[in-house]
Amino acid sequence: MTAVIGLLLMLFSVTDGVVTHCDGRQNGAQCYGALGGSVSIKMMDDFSEIHRYNLYKNKTVVMLGGKDKKPDSIMNNKYSFIPSNGTFWINNLSRNDSDEYRLRTLDTNGKLTSIHSLQLSVQAPVSSVSLVSECLSQGEMKVSCSSEGGDSPQYRWTLNGKSLTEAELLSGNKQTNIITLKQHVSGRLVCSVWNHVSSVSNETNICTCGFIYINCTFNGTKISKWVFKENNTLCVEPTTVSPTETHFTEDWSMLRCSLMFLFSVVSFVGICVYFKWKKIKSEKDEQSAERYRTQVLEDSSENEQALYIND
Fold first, then answer.
1. How far apart are CA 208 and CA 281, in angstroms?
2. What is the pLDDT of residues 28-74, one digit of tens each?
């Protein structure tokens, strides 16, 4: 067990790349490994009773071993084998590691007891995904999904957590990297890019591009189309006022005019009365002053006559 743990630690220290796993027990299995990473291939359930085994890469022996013999790798840092669980490892994967691998087992007499093969394909993993969206002339939205790296990338689209439907797609399909969404589509759009050794996704929020759907009859012509809301002049009816509102408005206008006329008349009458009162008061004041002067003169004349008689 200690030897197995030590071997695993050695395997993971060889590379910090992607680790993939494959069941290669079935003859003709297809396995995938990430470029720069490692792949573990389950070759057999138990090798403890296998007298001798050889592993070939195409026609070249890459691993030898047996019941009483420690596995011997042609390239110690490249290939490893754990007999107790029948797992074969390939580290620091390169393009050249893509090939056919064959396992041959032999008995004590050197007779071939079994042979089966598998195909290994090494792919570059997807490193990142970017999304670019564009509003089209009729309110549709074109969305492009692109990835860096990655061999044989495949695409998958979801909207608000659900797979896109034909009712939402104007063109393209949910397996292509460029799609066009219909005018009414909005929400959280996710593009996932994947291959057999990696999967990366990115998301964006989709809006309706400011378009509205017009469905009406105008001047006898039926209109059904998407238009930009800010520039819409179709089927826009003029503002109408109900008869009750019209009557109330007219009554209020007449009342307001009547009140204004009444106020003007009252103001005019008030001004006339004021000036009339001022005139009457002024005349009365003059008459009083005149009577006072006359009285003073009369008193003065009488006083002079009295003085003359006395003298």
1. 83
2. 999 999 999 999 999 888 777 788 888 999 989 998 888 777 777 77
Q: Is the pLDDT of residue 14 over 60?
A: no
Tell me if the pTM is above 0.70: no
Q: Where do the domains of the chain lie, and which CATH numbers do they carry?
A: 15-123 (2.60.40.10), 126-211 (2.60.40.10)
